[in-house]
Amino acid sequence: MKKLLQSLFIIMFFAVTAMAQDRTITGTVTSADDKQPIPGVSVKIQGAAGGASTNAQGKFSIKVGTSAKTILFSSIGYVEQAKTIGTSDVINAVLATDSKQLNEVVVTSFGVIRQARSLGASVGKVNNEQITQVSEPDVLKTLQGKVAGVDIRASQGTPGAATRIQIRGNTSFTGDAQPLIVVDRVPYSNDQVTTSNQLGGGGAYGSGFSNIDPNDIASIQVLKGSGAAALYGSRASNGVLLITTKSGSATAGKKGLEISLKSSVSLEQIAGLPELQNSFGTGSYGNYSASNGSWGPKFGGTLKEIPAWPAYLAAYPELFPTGKVPYQAYPDNVSSLFKDGYVFENSINLNGGNEKSAFVVTASQLDQSGYVTNSNYNRTNIAVGGSSKLDMGLNIRGNLSYSRSTQEGGFYGETQNGAPSLFSRSLFLGRNWDLSLPFEDKNGNSIIYAGAGQFDNPLWSAKYNTTNTAEERFIANIKADYDITKWANFSVAAGTNVNSLARREVIEVSSRAAEGLGRLTLDDYRKQEIESTALLNLKPKINDDFSFNGLLGFNFNQRTSTRQVDRGNQFIERGIHNLNNTVQQSFLIDSYQRRRIFGVFAEATFGYKNYAFITATGRNDWSSTLPVDNRSYFYPAISGTFIFTDAFKIKSKVLDYGKLRVSYAKVGRDASPYGVSNGFSFNTNFLSVPNASANNKANDPNLKPEFTKEFETGTELSFFSQRINFDFTYYNKISTNLIQAIDAPASSGYEFYNTNIGQISNKGVEIQLTAVPVRTTNFNWNLSLAYTRNKNMVDKLKDGVSRIDLAGFFASTGYSAYAEAGMPYGYLRGSTSARDNEGNLLVDPATGALIDNTEPSIIGDPNPKYKLGFTNTFSYKGISLGVLLDFTKGGSVYSTTIQNELGRGTSKLTEDRETTWVIPGVYGNPNTFQPILDANGNKIQNITRITTNSLYFNGGGASTFATNGADEWSVYDGTVFRLREISLGYTLPKALFKKTPIGSIRVSLTGRNLWFYTPNIPKGTNFDPETNSFGATNIQGIELSTAPTVKRYGFNINITF
Amino acid sequence: MIRKLKYIIPAVILLASSCKKSLDINTDPYSPTSVSENKLLPAAQLA
């Protein structure tokens, strides 16, 4: 593939050098208002490829061919102007200021283009430059901080790990709460295929969206609310991410061939390593032992040598002739585990055509190697698109894209849960552990420094415990449209998105997991989605005052998925990783699912004098996943907009545009397939006797569709000739009839019952502000602010259901993420320390440690209070500097990484071993959970001193603040300030390549996630609360020894011809 | 316009009429709704 790409580069380079241009036209573009030159104006020859832009002095220079007739000048905020090319080589233009958004259009549902001013709901937009200039191979991550209302969360810092997107909060209990993603008219799933539970291991699995090539994206539009997305039907209650690719938007009218090349190289490193103490080795309470915790004696004291670790001595006696090793610190043993990673990316885009036909080809190759050994992600994308206007009046467009990605990595998670994790000790290694020693014995078995089987040596785990995934995706779609009359257009579109994933997970012999016998798990997943739509778009001319836009449509969607997960335990011959080489095999999953939806819909927009619009929509769906009597459901939407500045003819130098908008929408959503009738499943033969049993889940035969009702209102204001633009939105969204399996009474014969059980609401505010504080001839300063606040609440659950365990783990302690009436979705519940009626902690007088409650309770809310993205872009002549800072306020995270750094005494915070500590609180009775009173009936202040060791890891299992402590002490406020992106770019002067076919060259240096600050997380842990163990799923705020985030430094070069 | 619609409308009706049958697919092919008693008995004995 790489050779093919290289060949393409070479062929195209020579092809363009053969193209000829005849003469050069120069000129100056100025503003009609203030007569000042306008920088950045796009200058193009009509019907030809390529173009130029004005410099800081408003001057331009463009080569034109002999056939060129018209030159076009366009810039945001100005009316486009066309000038005829005559004999003169100088053409100047004076551009008039555009009335705000008079002609701005947006792509709405099913690709229908509407005037932005007529839309009654909020729509966000991100362009190609904002995606490709940031050294980030994951498109979703490039949206962070840029669009109000959109919450993007990363999971782990290893290549290809999943990213989660959510718009305006969670609207489902355990169903998909991510928005509908539509790429060139075809839905695109961001599914995460989870092979092994990420609680007890599992990989940093990717999500479907990582297959997308950012270089092929022309633009992304975010239809945030139901009002904008209702026509899309069942999945639109979570909003819609509408992606237009370059290959899917080939537009006829261009002439010739335009080529752009992009190459980038980035260095990536672990974003935050903990500050470690290097004064104490392993042991407890100052005494040495070959344990995990670094609570042993001080280095440099009387203890000079310790016995060689038993596993090492047994494996390599020749390395330890005295049987002893020095007792000393290895300050770099943690950092030495990680290396510098890199990202190489190359892309070529060809765009050409004539007045009737156009084509686009994009090919890209990405190679990423992470900071963890053997963690890699590679992706190859090829996309071809074309459009043609046939003589009979039919317009046809289509595109085909293929992607193949491979992800290599290890297992993550907390060892206490039996994980074969390579991060089980990595960030809190014993301070006297010498990681330069071999990580395996002469037979290839993991050897460690503490007791056998307690964890896997991280270096051994990285080499032998692997999860490798190969994924292929084909997308194809075609659209034909025909102008029946001047005001009626009929179109038919059909497309398919086929995704296949094959994963092999190997746990090698001698791992802590799989009883040390080895395990192979194979996961094959295939999903096909077919979507077709027929649209009749009506735009009859009524009169100068009234306008009408109508839409009638039919939509069909079919999703089919198959999955087989097979497992083999206990390898017969070490190193041969196939099922035949295992002693015992089992079929974990063998499933097939198909669902269909038919929908008919209509939309009517009435406009008055182009300043008042009312839009009504309605859609009826028929879904295969609901009972026959409930499978048909209708949902309407209505919205209105009013441009009051036009209506009241406000001619102000301050306010130049003002729009009010309001919408109400209802969107229905169907169920998962096969959720309305009960069935049986076949079990493994017992003593060679085939047998079957009823499924453990009963289904409600009267299941109803879920509905989301959303009210939205907002305003768009523009000041000082569009120097300041303000967009405010308030929304209130209520999702009812939510479907969920709940515990069933044992007498029913089932464990679970699947039915409509509850309601979730989301209320929020979004603010998008853009401004140009400084605009001079040479210097521009643009800023953009995106504010998102969402308050989520589970309003009610079915009678008799107190709460739903969303993650289903730690059942013994009750620690998990839950849905409960009156609480935010996914709130964290776990063990807590007892307090008196005044909130004082109760301390056990016998130990000086805390007394824990017997019942779990609320310990955190992972939903952030608000998010803020703040982008500043400074440009001076050809140089530009962009900085994106973002801020997340609140959002709890339960972290076992921090818990272990403290509990195992490796953190710098535990270095003070001389001081003893008194837990602030009062003495309590560990049996009655009441404060102990003195003779006068007063509470007794705790004065029992405990050591630093006991403060974080109390011997005997008494509860303090880290290991063995209540869950609440491992929950931290995830407030974080972050330097998300920084880029410094330079567009080379055209004079440098005047006599070449090169149109432009731009180079840029970029940085990503270079700095973050977490005021409420223990200092020195350098823990990034953006990590999450459960990837793109609904479970957030739980971190179980994950791979930390990365920071990245990149260099990009873009060349156009 | 009317002349062209006479082709479009029947096509849409034809498409819609085929919908109902196409929706009767909500039965898991790998999970039968009934099994013979001789398959259930061993599992019941094991439970």
Automatic annotation (TrEMBL), chain A:
- What residues does the TonB-dependent receptor plug domain cover? 117-240
Keyword set, alphabetical order: Cell outer membrane, Membrane, Signal, TonB box, Transmembrane, Transmembrane beta strand, Transport
**Bilayer-spanning residue ranges:** none
Secretion signal span: 1-20
Question: What's one GO-annotated cellular component?
Answer: cell outer membrane
InterPro entries this protein is in? Beta-barrel_TonB, Beta-barrel_TonB_sf, CarboxyPept-like_regulatory, Plug_dom, Plug_dom_sf, TonB-dep_OMP_SusC/RagA, TonB-dep_OMP_SusC/RagA_CS, TonB-dep_rcpt-like
List where in the cell it is found. Cell outer membrane
Q: Where is the TonB-dependent receptor-like beta-barrel domain?
A: 431-795
Main location class: membrane
Q: Which Pfam families match?
A: CarbopepD_reg_2, Plug, TonB_dep_Rec_b-barrel
Membrane disposition: Multi-pass membrane protein
Give the family this protein belongs to, as stated in its UniProt record.
Answer: Belongs to the TonB-dependent receptor family.
Protein name per its UniProtKB record: SusC/RagA family TonB-linked outer membrane protein
